[in-house]
Design a protein that fits this description.
The chain is of the alpha/beta class. The protein folds into two domains: 226 residues, 3-Layer(aba) Sandwich (D-Maltodextrin-Binding Protein, domain 2); 215 residues, 3-Layer(aba) Sandwich (D-Maltodextrin-Binding Protein, domain 2). Helices cover 42% and strands 11% of the residues. The strands form three sheets. It has a five-stranded mixed β-sheet. A four-stranded mixed β-sheet has the order 8-9-7-10. Helix 10 packs across helix 19 and helix 18 packs antiparallel against helix 19. The radius of gyration is 23 Å and the shape is globular.
Length: 481
């Protein structure tokens, strides 16, 4: 662990809040009271409960695992009003949630103690002084506990040599496929995804599927999320990294060239070429792509781990399985951080310790999230809290319209299949790459999505021109211009 920032460094971090208003694309400004004077300092408020946790919507549904974990914390702290916790879920997509959190923390319009941040937002919130560095481990036990976090997952909490959060739930791109549809097309088991599968292997299977006389007219080889939102950024970075193209270094400095960007764009165009990807992918998000997969309109699917739990509501156990994504896969997920001006900092950090404990991470994994601790995958972790385990339901914001019909709830896959999934997920997380680390991530992803979506939508894509234009804009973005 890295030491906490103290003294002048902390004051410098606070001073950057004003600068953060200029650097972030939010509608809410850094304002004081209605008459232009500064509002009350939250540090002067009494450190009374509840501890307020702000988070995006839980993909495990209403009353999902995050809310259940908060309720378990409250049960364990019954009779202590100042230590009770409350979960506030923010509506909208990731970009909207980011804007809401930035606006609230900069203006002081909402007093959050803990924020559940997308891993790509850590540099921005840290640079603006909106979250506090986590304290250094004081005992060997605490240090060992931190080492249980998967190395690449824990690295998402770092910025400028300090850890600003704890990993809560993680994510990584996976390749789902339909064994029943592959069998129907005459593709033998030996030609199905393995740990060493490549995109060329996938293309070969897609070609065979296209030649099958039994293939429905609306069935494509694979689908993914190419709508103009963060899913497109994830798919693009995976293509770039698979082609050996890194957009920025770990300090947020731009390092690509127009020639390298063209190489990455060409890789993405190969993956999404006509006859390979489902055309509807260009307007698909996670829910839409999962619906197409479950309905048999795509045989392969690039999706996140929670899709594995969602499949239980959509398909029979022998109709789906999962393996690692060919090439590189990007990390996703959220980290828990304490807001810089929380008057309940100590209680907030204690709550984060609870929410990221082995027992809590086991609950998250059981509910369909990817856990952040290695012990969950090697079966040495403590089991899920009994009260939470009893309340958990099958995971997923699964599109009910895609259900395959029949009465009752489809059966889960067997223990052997679930163990294989856990091994696959662990291996993928241990080799995943990050999206660019930069305080200007919001501007970066907006520019990337705009150029890439326009390129994919045209009938005659010119990757050279797109790369030149993208290079010029990204140079400005990473320089903060």
């Amino acid at each position: 662990m890295t030491p906490a920032v103290r003294g002048p460094a902390r004051r410098t971090a606070r001073a950057t809040v004003a600068l953060g208003c200029l650097l972030t694309l939010v509608s809410a400004g850094c304002t004081g009271g209605p008459d232009g004077t500064s509002g009350p300092d939250p540090q002067d408020q009494a450190a009374e409960g509840p501890i307020v946790v702000a988070s995006g919507l839980d993909v495990t549904g209403s009353g999902g695992v995050r809310q259940q974990l908060i309720e378990e914390w409250n049960r364990q702290h019954a009779g202590k009003p100042a230590q009770q916790a409350k979960l506030v879920e923010l509506p909208g997509g990731a970009d909207q949630q980011r804007s809401q959190l930035l606006g609230a923390l900069q203006s002081g319009s909402a007093h959050y103690d803990v924020v559940n941040l997308d891993i790509t937002w850590i540099p921005e919130f840290a640079e603006a002084g909106l979250i506090s560095p986590m304290p250094e481990a004081e005992t060997d036990s605490e240090a060992d506990n931190d080492l249980d976090f998967m190395k690449r997952v824990h690295a998402t909490t770092l910025w400028n040599g300090h850890s600003y959060a704890r990993p809560f739930n993680t994510d990584v791109g996976l390749l789902y496929y339909r064994p029943d549809l592959l069998t129907k097309a005459g593709i033998p088991t030996s030609r199905r995804p393995t740990a060493v599968w490549t995109w060329d292997d996938l293309y070969a299977s897609v070609k065979t599927l296209g030649l099958s006389p039994d293939r429905p007219d609306d069935q494509a080889g694979w689908t993914t999320q190419l709508k103009q939102y963060e899913g497109l950024t994830a798919n693009t970075v995976e293509a770039f990294e698979s082609a050996g193209v890194q957009i920025a270094d770990n300090q947020g400095r731009y390092k690509a060239t127009a020639g390298q960007l063209k190489k990455g764009l060409d890789e993405l165009l190969d993956r999404t070429g006509r006859g390979r990807v489902r055309p509807a992918a260009l307007s698909s998000d996670e829910t839409a792509s999962l619906t197409d997969f479950a309905a048999g309109r795509a045989v392969f699917l690039r999706h996140w781990p929670y899709g594995y739990g969602a499949m239980r509501n959509l398909l029979e156990p022998d109709q789906y399985t999962v393996n690692r994504l060919p090439g590189k896969s990007v990390l996703g997920g959220q980290n828990l951080a304490v807001t810089a001006d929380s008057p309940r900092g100590d209680d907030a950090r204690e709550l984060i310790t609870f929410l990221t404990s082995q027992q809590s991470e086991s609950c998250l994994f059981d509910a369909g999230f990817a856990a952040t601790r290695a012990s969950v995958y090697n079966r040495t972790a403590e089991p899920c809290w009994p009260g939470v385990a009893a309340a958990l339901r099958p995971a997923g914001d699964a599109p009910k319209a895609a259900a395959t019909g029949g009465e009752g709830t489809p059966k889960e896959q067997g223990e052997a299949e679930r163990d294989a999934y856990a091994r696959t997920l662990s291996a993928a997380l241990n080799e995943a790459v990050q999206r660019p680390r930069t305080p200007y991530y919001g501007a970066f992803t907006h520019v990337l999505q705009s150029h890439v979506h326009a390129l994919l939508a045209t009938d005659s894509p010119d990757s050279g021109k797109a790369a030149t234009d993208l290079d010029a804009e990204l140079r400005d973005v990473f320089a903060g211009r």
